[in-house]
Structure formats: C-alpha cells, structure tokens
Specification:
The chain is α/β, with parallel strands linked by helices. The chain has helices spanning 2-40, 56-71, 87-97, 110-113, 115-120, 145-159, 174-190, 207-219, 234-241, 268-280, 310-325, 352-357; strands at 42-47, 74-78, 102-106, 125-129, 138-143, 164-169, 195-200, 225-229, 245-249, 260-266, 289-292, 299-302, 335-336, 342-344, 366-368. The chain folds into two domains: 41-143, Response regulator (Rossmann fold); 145-266 and 296-368, Rossmann fold.
Length: 370
C-alpha cells in the first residue's frame, strides 16, 4: 500500500507540474497576444521635414492623421529626421519602445539607412515610400505620382510658348526619374518639339539651391514654364516672381498669380487608408509593393488657373479617363532614352518592378543642365 501511495503521489506531482507548465505557456501566449494587440493600435510615422510645412511633409502628415483618426489608431510622430544622419535609427528605437506595431518611413532613403533595424524587429511592419530595399516585414508603398506627372506634362506641352520647360529635381533615383520621364512623355504627346531641362539640387529640401536653379532655368535657358520634385514650393515662388508659368507638386498652393497653372495632387488620406486597412487585416507582411493611383481616386490634377483654357482642361481630362481604363498607358510602346537607347519596344510595356526599383534613365527629350 505504501508503494502504491508513493506511485500515486508521483503521478499527482507530475500532473501538477504539467498543469503549471501549461498555465505558464498560456499566460505567456496571452501576454504576447495582448502586447501585439496594443501594438496594433499604435502607428509610427517618420518624415524628413516639418509636418506643418506645406508640400510633401504636411500633405503626408495630414493624410495619415486623417486615416488614423478614422480607424481609431494612435499616431506617433517623428519629424525633422534627416536621411543618413543617425536620427532615423534613433527615431525607430523610440517608436518601438513606445509600442508602435507599424512604422512608416516617409523618405526614399530611410529603409537603406535602417536596414539592420528592420531585420532586428521582424514583428513590426515597416512601410517605406518607394524603397529599393526588400525584407519580409518591409513593404514599399507609393502613389502612382507619375500618372499625375504625365497629365501635368500634357498641360505643360500645350501651355509653353518657348518650348523650353524647366524641371528642378532632387536626385536621379527611380522615383524622381519615373516622374520626369512620365512628365516628358506627356509633354511629347501634345508637343514633340518641346524640351525638358532638368537641374539636380542633390537633396529633397535645399531652398537656396532650388531658388538658384529655378531662376537659372528661366533667365539662362529660356524656360517659360517650371515644375519641380522637391519637398517645398521654392520653385513655384521663383517662377511666379519672374512671370513664368508653373505646375506645383503635392500641394494646393495659395496666394499666387494666374501663372500657377495647376497642381499634381495625391489624396494621401486615401493612400494611408488603403495601407492601414491591409495592416489591420494582417495582410501587410505578404505585400512587397503597394501602388495606388488614378484608378483608386488617389492621383489627380487640380487648381486650374484662369490661364488654362477649357480646351486644355478637356485634353487633360480625356487623358485621365484613358488612364482609368489603362494604367499601362504611359510607359508603353516605343520609348528611347536621351542617349538613343531603345528602352521599350513598339508592342511592349515597362513592367512595374522596373518602374519602381530600377528606372535609372531619362527619356528622349530630357536634357540635364548645370
């Protein structure tokens, strides 16, 4: 009887031990799930400039703020974060410590700078604007701004009198080259004689260089119409001052003359709603590239001035309707670069992957000047 009692005691102890282990595992899982749920409600947002500064910075901030408010999410913001300065890694560590479950990196080079941190936090969704980097927990997201560039190019091609159009641009990466090329293809659609002169500033926001380039394009090269790919509207200010027409980028501008022809607009609230929906459904980890554009109502041309005739508006609107039914309209058919190399055949289309990641050339009709 004593032997049986000892045996029973061992069974009871073993059973208790199993129960304790199971309870610990359950508690750990429950605690982890609770932590994940908490992270799900917090969204990190890192951007280059001031969130109150009109242009790239304010439009993105207002867009994600509106989307987060609609879904009841807490937005954690870090602005004034310069690329390759060490500030972005610090901002990520802070956001992770504050419990962010997704972190938006809203400048082209951020993902390259913090690639090791993206791997360090595999449970966090990182979203970078138009990145060249790839990881399981990194999604490259961007609006099809090139569609708006194409439409604005059509307007510019009709409006220019000198057939010289100036383009102040940050740097020759895939995002910027894609926009310049689409703009130029739009110009050529209505005005094959026009030239697009590009001047690089070397940065997303460097006001004195932007102003100098804009003035030089007008006074030295004879441009009567300007556009730009910069975070702020310095080029618009210079163009208006010198009496040149201009097409703005990424913002509705106020206080300008009729030389302000129109803006290439992205409805960033719709853009961020699309991404956050996928994040909340748990789909983002399986999405490498996420594009939205005219088809989703995200990209448009707006703010036509009185200097834009009804016929010009009609032509641009017709092209926009074409894009609604065929998003491959722009980078299709015979396209040569400005060095004379065939980049797209007569019956071909440049695929999305190349447009997003490896477009490092400029189309025929573009000239880079200094």
């Amino acid at each position: 009887m004593d032997f049986l009692s000892e045996k029973n005691r061992l069974k009871i102890l073993l059973g208790l031990g199993c129960c304790i282990v199971a309870m610990i595992i359950y508690l750990l899982i429950f605690a982890f799930d609770t932590e994940i749920d908490k992270r799900h409600d917090k969204i990190g947002f890192i951007i280059l400039g001031d969130i109150n500064e009109a242009g790239w910075n304010a439009s993105h901030y207002n867009g994600i703020k509106a989307a987060c408010e609609e879904y009841g999410l807490q937005l954690l913001v870090r602005d004034h974060v310069k690329e390759f300065s060490g500030q972005c890694p610090e901002a990520i560590e802070e956001l992770v410590a504050e419990g962010a479950g997704a972190i938006f990196l809203v400048s082209f080079n951020y993902a390259t700078e913090v690639r090791s941190l993206i791997d360090k936090y595999p449970h966090i969704s990182f979203i970078n604007t138009s990145t060249l980097e790839q990881a399981k927990n990194l999604t490259s997201c961007f609006a099809r701004m090139y569609q708006g560039r194409y439409l604005s190019g059509i307007l510019a091609g009709m409006k220019t009198q000198s057939n010289i159009i100036g383009y102040v641009a940050a740097m020759p990466n895939a995002e910027v080259c894609r926009g310049i090329n689409a703009f130029t293809l739009g110009v050529q659609r209505v005005n094959p004689k026009a030239r697009v002169l590009v001047m690089w500033t070397g940065d997303w926001q460097v006001e004195d260089v932007e102003a100098e380039h804009a003035q030089k394009l007008i006074e030295k090269y004879g441009a009567d119409l300007l556009t730009y790919h910069q975070d702020v509207e310095v080029t618009a200010q210079v163009a208006d001052k010198f009496g040149a027409d201009f097409i703005a980028y990424n913002a509705h501008l106020e206080g300008y003359s009729k030389h302000y022809l129109a803006s290439v607009i992205c409805h960033w609230d719709l853009y961020y709603k699309d991404i956050l929906q996928k994040y909340l459904k748990g789909e983002l980890f399986s999405i490498r590239d996420n594009w939205v554009g005219v088809q989703q109502g995200v990209i448009t041309i707006s703010d036509y001035s009185e200097a834009v005739t009804p016929q010009m508006r009609s032509t641009v609107n017709s092209a926009q309707k074409e894009l609604l039914s065929n998003q491959n309209l722009i980078f299709a058919g015979e396209i040569y670069d400005n060095q004379g190399k065939l980049r797209c055949g007569k019956n071909q289309v440049i695929d999305e992957k190349q447009l997003l990641r490896s477009l490092d050339w400029l189309v025929k009709g573009v000239e880079v000047v200094e």
